[in-house]
Amino acid sequence: QVQLVESGGDSVQPGGSLRLSCAASGFTFSSYAMSWYHQAPGKERELVAYINNRGGTNYEDSVKGRFTISRDNAKSTVYLQMNSLKAEDTGVYYCYAPLFRLWGQGTQVTVSS
């Protein structure tokens, strides 16, 4: 089976940090690009970060300098390290494998005082 399972979402205060994980299975993880999307309440899902099979990355402007996407191919896992969290970062974060058009189920992040 091909699947992505996110974890690590939580409720944190502004300025706090979280590390999201996405565990992949059912495909040769190291060969494919991975990405993280964010869906704020009532908003469209949008791309936050992308990492290709070589480790090259791209980020949405609003998270540059705060978020870092990385991957551990030995663990078939992609991470999103989120620092200096803001209220607008609140929402569901989804892992996505573009070439498989495969989504995880999402993990909730809430940033509030």
Architecture blueprint of SSEs:
Elements (H helix, E strand, L loop, with lengths): L2 E5 L3 E2 L5 E8 L8 E6 L6 E6 L5 E3 L7 E6 L4 E6 L8 E7 L4 E2 L3 E5 L2
Parallel strand pairs: 2-11
Antiparallel strand pairs: 1-3, 3-8, 4-5, 4-9, 5-6, 7-8, 9-10, 9-11
Describe, in plain words, how this protein is organized in 3D.
About 30% of the residues are buried. The mean pLDDT is about 95. Helix content is about 0%, strand content about 50%. The strands form two sheets. Strands 2, 4, 5, 6, 9, 10 and 11 form a seven-stranded mixed sheet that branches. Strands 1-3-8-7 form a four-stranded antiparallel sheet, with no helix packed on it. With about 110 residues, the protein is mostly beta strands. It is built from no helices and eleven strands. A hairpin with a 4-residue loop joins strand 7 and strand 8.
Q: Could you state the order of secondary-structure elements as H and E? A: EEEEEEEEEEE
Low-confidence segments: none
Classify the beta-strand content into a percent band. over 45%
Q: Please provide the count of β strands.
A: 11
Supply Rg: 13 Å
Number of helices: 0
Helix content: under 10%
Distance between the termini: 40 Å
Oligomer: single chain
Q: What class, by secondary structure content?
A: mainly beta
Q: What does the main sheet amount to?
A: 7 strands, mixed
The averaged pLDDT comes out at: 97
Shape: globular
